[in-house]
């Protein structure tokens, strides 16, 4: 998926909010510096394209599961569907180890996301070695930034009481599963 396609997907999903539309923006507008910083980082992540988009999407969905952010799970499932990630891969995030629905790369990035989203965040040397053997330094940095930012999003959303917006209403969503 190209960078422009990914931006378009995000805009389409954001426009599909059915409720609680703009809750986060309404909070962040009170601190314009944070609104600009948040928007800049989100844009930076969208403009990076070394790591395949579906791997980043699965990793951020797993991170949202680990930290239990309902808004993140709601929008993450909608983004995954819109990006073409099959529902069976989202279901596989519930029990990813050895799950045949996930290929080796997907299992690797999901394990990484789970490790750095746990408290405390610990990436075992064996996992880091496997990641470094499979992905370039740029790809791994991009993945780490994406998952770390998902953790930031989740913590901010939870702290501010940001609720699901109905992005996944009527479709499979990890909220009800977690």
How would you characterize this protein structure?
- With 178 residues, this protein is mainly alpha-helical.
- The protein has one domain (3-160): AhpD-like (Up-down Bundle).
- It has 9 helices and no strands.
- The protein is globular, with a radius of gyration of 15 Å.
- The mean pLDDT is 93.
- This is AhpD family alkylhydroperoxidase.
Summarize, please.
Helix content is 65%, strand content 0%. The protein is mainly alpha-helical.
Task: Looking at this protein, list some descriptive labels.
mainly alpha; AhpD-like; 178 residues; 0% strand; globular
Topology:
Blueprint: H1 3-15, H2 23-28, H3 32-46, H4 53-67, H5 70-82, H6 87-92, H7 104-117, H8 125-134, H9 137-160
Number of helical regions: 9
Give the count of structural domains. Answer: 1
CATH class: Mainly Alpha
Largest sheet: none
Could you spell the SSE succession in H and E letters?
HHHHHHHHH
- Helix % is 55-70%
CATH fold label: AhpD-like
Number of beta-strand segments: 0
Regions with little confidence, pLDDT below 50 for 5+ residues: none
Strand portion, in percent?
under 5%
> Which structural class do the helices and strands define?
mainly alpha
CATH architecture: Up-down Bundle
N- and C-termini, Cα separation: 28 Å
Radius of gyration: 15 Å
CATH superfamily: AhpD-like
- Mean pLDDT, rounded to whole units? 93
């Amino acid at each position: 998926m190209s960078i422009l396609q990914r931006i378009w997907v995000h805009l389409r999903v954001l426009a599909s909010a059915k409720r609680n539309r703009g809750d986060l923006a309404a909070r962040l507008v009170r601190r314009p510096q944070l609104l600009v910083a948040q928007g800049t980082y989100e844009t930076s992540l969208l403009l990076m394209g070394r790591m395949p988009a579906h791997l980043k999407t699965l990793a951020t969905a797993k991170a949202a599961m680990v930290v239990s952010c309902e808004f993140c799970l709601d929008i993450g499932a909608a983004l995954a569907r819109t990006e073409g990630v099959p529902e069976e891969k989202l279901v596989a995030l519930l029990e990813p180890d050895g799950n045949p629905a996930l290929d080796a790369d997907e299992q690797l990035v999901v394990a990484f996301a789970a490790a750095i989203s746990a408290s405390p965040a610990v990436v075992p040397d064996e996992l880091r070695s496997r990641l470094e053997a499979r992905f370039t330094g740029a790809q791994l940095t991009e993945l780490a930034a994406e998952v770390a930012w998902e953790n930031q999003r989740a913590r901010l959303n939870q702290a501010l009481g940001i609720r699901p917006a109905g992005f996944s209403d009527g479709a499979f969503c990890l909220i009800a599963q977690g």
